[in-house]
Specification:
5-stranded parallel sheet, FAD/NAD(P)-binding domain, binds flavin-adenine dinucleotide, Enolase-like, domain 1
């Protein structure tokens, strides 16, 4: 019987297992994760899950009990032996495999020095979210969010909706500007300010204060921002340390080809070791170099391609997705397709803050490569079709998932 091991028990790992079973694979599947939980959904962690009364059930993903898996939670993979096809766990156990799926995602970047014992958080896991939730709902007033990416911006919106005084400090010209460009980021920035958030763009937080509990932070070496809670949303680091001596190609993430196969250090694909989700970096025709798509739909779609590649190594499917993601802030649901962060030019077709409507198209070398809208569902579907058409003209069948199916 074939043995498949999946390392990383989250969205990509679970979807790989589901896809294998749906395709009729009846061999053994062992799902290993270092968190003490079965797979759960992360996007609510910076949004509704922080609001009192929202329970763990709201994070439910597919029920693993229906998939016939051997589940190993609270166990970390510490070494991959490619030659002997074995994953070594921190318990000392060795899992032999015929085929392997790597879906170890990313972790929150940490503050480089020791931090006060209470009140300082990062946000990546359910346990992180429990800690923040407890702090936000225990009467604190002043919240400082350090980092103006998606998680920082979303958590700011949630903390503000809970009535806290919130300061959002980030290096960019406006929250999210590196991901969605200056125009759309200007829209997000105005939502924050309209809601009463103090937005500090273009700054660097240089020190955290407090010994037992945090009392504040210094910004740009000279300005003190008092705070009872600090959320460090400093970006991600791929979980690849356990692969350091494996011989797999790593370049700010685990490098895969367009079939989700990992590569050896000579760039040769390993057909029995695939990878999916946030941990990966792979080629895409709308980008220069490799891309990481740290979004929900990528974890789902790439995992399904990875599973198909294992089952059909002689005719592996091609993964060239029309990327898609969403973010919800102040009740406004932004939907994006393509690769807005790769654009060299944008066109703003609508910017109506009062009606919460936004429509921005992103171009690279005068070719449409992405779009972002708010409250314009039909337009995002049209943009998606255009992007899918452009990819199919390149002779590539884009991964099949409609924007409507992504929430
Ligand atoms: C707070 C938050 C909000 C988000 N909101 C959105 C959103 O609104 N829209 C959107 O599109 N996306 C959003 N995302 C991103 C989305 O959740 C991720 O893209 C998705 O979770 C990626 O899934 P993954 O399985 O690749 O990785 P992960 O979910 O990171 O899972 C990887 C798992 O592997 C485990 N692991 C790591 N190393 C090892 C090891 N050595 N051994 C065993 N296990 C290991 C990790 O602990 C983790 O459980 C959000 C993410 C976060 C954190």
């Amino acid at each position: 019987m074939t043995r498949i091991v999946i390392v990383g028990a989250s969205l990509a790992g679970l979807n790989a297992a589901q896809a294998l079973r749906e395709a009729g694979y009846s061999g053994s599947i062992t799902l290993v994760g270092d968190e003490p939980h079965a797979p759960y959904d992360r996007p609510p962690l910076s949004k509704q899950f922080l609001i009192p009364g929202t329970e763990r059930e709201s994070l439910a993903l597919a029920d693993t009990a229906l998939l016939g898996l051997t589940e190993e939670y609270g166990r970390r993979a510490v070494h991959l032996d490619v030659r002997n096809r074995a994953v070594h766990l921190d318990s000392g156990r060795v899992l032999e495999f015929d085929q392997l799926v790597i879906a170890t995602g990313v972790g929150a970047r940490q503050w480089p020095e020791p931090v006060p014992r209470q009140g300082v958080h990062t946000l990546r896991t359910l346990d992180d979210a429990y800690g923040i939730k407890q702090d936000l709902n225990s009467g604190v007033r002043r919240v400082l969010v350090v980092g103006d990416g998606f998680i920082g911006s979303e958590a700011t919106s949630t903390a503000r909706s809970l009535g806290h005084e919130v300061t959002l400090a980030g290096k960019g010209r406006a929250p999210l500007n590196r991901a969605i460009g200056d125009d759309a980021a200007g829209f997000v920035s105005r939502l924050h300010r309209e809601a009463g958030v103090t937005v500090l763009p273009g700054v660097r937080v240089t020190a955290l204060h407090g010994s037992q509990r945090v009392t504040g932070a210094t910004v740009n070496d000279d300005r003190l921002v008092p705070a009872d809670v600090v959320l460090l949303a400093l970006g991600d680091q791929p979980h690849t340390a356990w692969l350091a001596d494996s011989g797999l190609k790593i370049d700010r993430g685990l490098v895969t080809d367009v079939h989700a196969r990992t590569l050896d250090t000579n760039g040769e694909p390993l057909p029995h070791i695939v990878a999916a989700g946030d941990v990966t970096r792979f080629p895409h025709p709308h980008a220069s170099g490799l891309v990481t798509l740290g979004h929900w739909s990528n974890a789902v779609e790439q995992a399904r391609v990875a599973a198909a590649t294992l089952l059909r190594p002689d005719a592996p499917p091609v993964y060239r997705p029309v990327a898609s993601f969403w973010t919800t802030q102040y009740g406004v649901k932004f939907r994006a397709v393509g690769l807005p962060d790769q654009a060299d030019r944008t066109e703003v077709h609508e910017f109506d803050l009062a009606r919460r409507r936004l429509d921005v198209a992103y171009y690279r070398n005068d070719q449409l490569i992405g779009a972002l809208t708010a409250n314009r569902a039909a337009r995002i579907v049209a943009y998606r079709s255009q992007l899918a058409e452009a990819l199919s003209l390149l002779g590539i069948q884009p991964a099949r998932m409609s924007i409507a199916s992504v929430r």
